[in-house]
Amino acid sequence: MTDNLPSARRLGSLTARLVSASPIRTLALLALCAAYIQGPITKILDFYGALAEMTHFGLHPAPFFAVSVIVFELVASAMVVSGILRWAGALALSGFTLLATFIALRFWEMAPGMERMMATNAFFEHVGLAGAFILVAAFDLEKGAGA
């Protein structure tokens, strides 16, 4: 049993070095922000679709909200990925995600069935995403980057 302990420590140390390597960390932050980068690009390429989405969710005036969401998501994602006020960008995306989730995924108002089940799953996936952004902010503030 004690023979495995040193190798487990080496494996843990190797894993820690690999996961904390700058390219891996940057890729992970890009992955975390992927929906907030892809979404605005899609909205820019199909602005009428973005307006329809805002109208569907009762956000008026739709052009104001569409442009605001596009700018917000791109700027906050850039903050998270670049490290410039990462904690602030992460907290902003966390709050935005929770707000958007409660607007768009009200599964509790749906009739039982597949659509409700899919909305429920998406709701809790988004809650988890918001939690991940809070962890990014906490880690950033812990290391002193938020000072």
From TrEMBL:
Q: Give the residue spans that cross the bilayer.
A: 20-37, 57-81, 87-108, 120-139
Matching entries from InterPro entries are given as: DoxX (IPR032808)
Does the record carry Membrane as a key word? yes
Entry keyword set: Membrane, Transmembrane, Transmembrane helix
Query: GO terms for CC?
Result: membrane
- This protein's record includes keyword Membrane: yes
**Name of the protein in its database record:** Putative membrane protein YphA (DoxX/SURF4 family)
Where would you say this protein principally sits, based on its record? membrane
> Where is the protein localized?
Membrane
Organism superkingdom? Bacteria
Membrane-topology descriptor: Multi-pass membrane protein
Recorded hits in Pfam families, A to Z, give:
DoxX
